[in-house]
Amino acid sequence: MDIRGRRQSSNIEDRRGMRPVRTGVGISVGGVLILLVLSLFGINPLPFLGLATQEPQVQMQDTGQPYQESAQEAEYRELVAVVLADTEETWRALLPKYGVNYVEPKLVLYSGMTPSACGTGQSAMGPFYCPLDQKVYIDTTFFDDLSQRFGAQGDFAQAYVIAHEIGHHVQTLAGTSEKVRAAQERMSKADANAMSVRMELQADCYAGVWAHNADRSRQLLEPGDIEEGLRAASAIGDDRIQKQTQGRIVPDAFTHGSSEQRMRWFNRGFETGDPLACDTFSAAQL
Q1: How many CA atoms lie within 13 A of 147 on its CB side?
Q2: 90-130 pLDDT, tens per residue?
Q3: Most buried pick, 90, 93, 181, 267, via CB within 10 A?
Q4: If 0-12 CB within 10 Å is exposed, 13-18 middle and 19+ buried, where does residue 99 land?
Q5: Domain extents for the chain?
Q6: Please, which residues have CB within 8 angstroms of residue 182's CB and are 6 or more apart in sequence?
Q7: Region of poorest pLDDT, from 33-42, 120-129, 208-217
Q8: How far is Cα 140 from Cα 130, in angstroms, rounded to an integer?
Q9: Do 197 and 286 touch, CB atoms closer than 8 A?
């Protein structure tokens, strides 16, 4: 990717080097979802608050010292800021055509752990998007894992991960996330997992839509970048991760999609550049 001299987003919240302090009992990720579902069905969630307080609350405390980043971390930070800025340009131009105004999300850089409106984020979780505060959370050490553990090298592999999480933000703005969560509450675990797969594949497709526009409109991509993105999509497919971690593949437990599915939907978004081509929920075959 050619990020030299590119605009960097100002929507970066850098918490690296801050010290996590446990301040009491907070709401777990599962607890937040319980309260959200109750409120969606018109039920007062306050009587159930005790059921949701299962996780120590974490706040970040400034150490008073500037974070000393390594040269590698500085490269990661610059890449994140450039890619985030480019996604802002893409979705700010595209979404109003479909009746949705693009509200720019914040992206939080952290190290180790950090609080979010969806519970405490930890580096072992990998990058994630929280719809309750509309923020993307990334511990940049994940990029090392992506390269070393999953074998997905290259800056565009990292960019794909960022664009995928921004895809979840687009789903939130479009109302898709809320509809899916409501539907999942009425489903079996296997069906709810299958719905999660469709959500994740759509986010992969949206990442491809961004790549299409980054390439056509701003010439951000270089030869080999799309191949890097496809390798990253393949590397973190449910089937490949299950095979690595438990030695067998259980399709009913998929939550993100197989390697082949993730590559196919990312490629569909890249080839069309059209968000409407990303309707995984109506697709007969994923």
Answers
A1: 11
A2: 999 999 999 999 999 999 999 988 988 988 888 888 889 99
A3: 90
A4: exposed
A5: 12-18+67-278, 19-61
A6: 37, 40
A7: 33-42
A8: 17
A9: yes
